[in-house]
Amino acid sequence: MTNRITEKLQQDKKLLSIYFTAGYPELNDTVGIIEGLEKNGVDMIEIGLPFSDPLADGPTIQESSTAALKNGMTTEVLFDQLKDIRKTVSIPLIIMGYFNPMLQYGVKAFCKKCEEIGIDGLIIPDLPVDVYHEEYQAIFEKNGLLNVFLITPQTPDERIQFIDSVSKGFIYMVSSASVTGAKSGFGKEQVEYFERIKSMNLKNPQIVGFGISNSETFGQATKHAKGAIIGSALIKHLNKNGASKLDSFVNTIRQE
Amino acid sequence: MSYNANEKGYYGEFGGAFIPEMLYPNCEELRRNYISVMKEDSFQKEFHQLLKDYVGRPTPLYFAERLSNKYNTKIYLKREDLCHTGAHKVNNTIGQILMAKRLGKNRIIAETGAGQHGVATATVCALMGIQCVVYMGEIDIHRQAPNVARMKMLGAEVRPAKSGSKTLKDATNEAIRDWINNPVDTHYIIGSVVGPHPYPDMVARFQSIISEEIKWQLKEKEGRENPDYVVACVGGGSNAAGAYYHFLDNTDVGIIAVEAAGKGIHSGESAATSALGKVGIIHGSKTLLMQTQDGQITEPYSISAGLDYPGVGPMHAHLFKSGRGEFISITDDEAMQAGLLLSKLEGIIPAIESSHAFAILEERKFNTDDIVVINLSGRGDKDLNTYIDYFKL
User: Among A254, B85, B86, B188, which residue has the fewest nearby CB atoms (within 10 Å)?
Assistant: First the structure.
């Protein structure tokens, strides 16, 4: 299966992927943020579909989700905002959200809509790999969607192998046992974990997330992986600056 | 059909473990071990010894004669209100603290709404000398000051949940996040039959002591093990799960679940999940839950803090969906009147949660020779201020 994600993964560069919460800081910032990030050289974007009870996220992303919901963000609104996104944006777009809103929209309808819009993949932290494999994989693949799974330092090798076998894009390597935005920087333990995963020679490349907030941590993470994802740091930037000055944010990450 | 969990933690279509990968190792460790640990002789011995000497079990099965006369049927009360700490919650926390010790954990976390489960957890942590952190919604901390003080006296740290709606569901989110951040040394004691597999089944098994006792106590009193009906209030549903457990697969026993209608099912201020909920995922479990059309979890309301959970345990979702259970919802006003009536007729002041179960007697008629067991899950001391305000006492 080829789509924008698999094509991007073949490029000979370290990938910078950015997460932001749709509908934050303002309801209609979504498209502007996506265009701004692409213009400034971001390789891939995770569009956060806000949820009232985001278990895997720390306070920064939860607060942005609460604010986005208050602003009026819903699944319908997001799809409507994104309906013409492929006229202006060509980098891979992934929707990241919790399973319940998708379940209410209808998983089939949700996937179909994603394909229509030009979404390339989904990250659903609370949809476990075995349930995906048994119940939903066929629907996702029919609509050309890659599903991305997380692994952590505690994930047993056998399970990593299973996740690798089910995955068809990349593996989201959570840097440490934590929720998003909890820790910054990597210690010896993380580096050992990155090396351990690297030595497993998985068929899917890995992209590191959680704990990456600046050029230093981006550099460290991508030494051991294909790319890295930044989320909470951008939310903090948006909180301070609104949806502007994305160039300065991206540039500080990319500088060596 | 069985009404218990299968090995994957499903009750019919409900249950399972919809958890972020970060929680997988924690839940998996528990899932692999919980049944074998519970079956160990040494575990059973210690568990039952503590239930007897520390909790005060068996709790009486009391024939409520005056209440029976008023409603013209035979009513027995299962007196969980006489447990140490004032409610059935401690049955589960005793079980889980022993589980945690056997799994080598040295730190306990818990969530609490009204504070009853928090107190029961802080109690067993004090008993075992284990560090205890209880997450409680910031709003609840203000509403339930005496229970916060109790937890502190017992040596627990009470951490305010400041996210979202700042109540029980957010306290649960915070506890889960803590567990994500502390996957190795920490055990999370969930207080109800909710959350990812194996929690609903494990908590139901610990609480099943309630129906185990009902069976032999009823045999002594009536010469038969099975009542015609078992009635219990349902928030998350742990006291109900315990009261139903040994009767689940015996369809001669009617199961009645009583939910909190708050100010009325359609008032917008209610916690009647079976009436208002749709299938969804909350705290790692597929179940019925109150949510917006868009799948955002909504805030429930009941005068009783122990019943205002937006979901219901997957066992109860299945009992509802399959028709095995009869679900009735009771308003704040009906519950308060039932609590007053029980106080005056039997000299027992019930927790407002339990008052909901008694309120069905006004509308649900039973035959004269029916044996109806009502689970009196907790005592009313903690609710005195609510009773005072309501009745202008």
Answer: A254
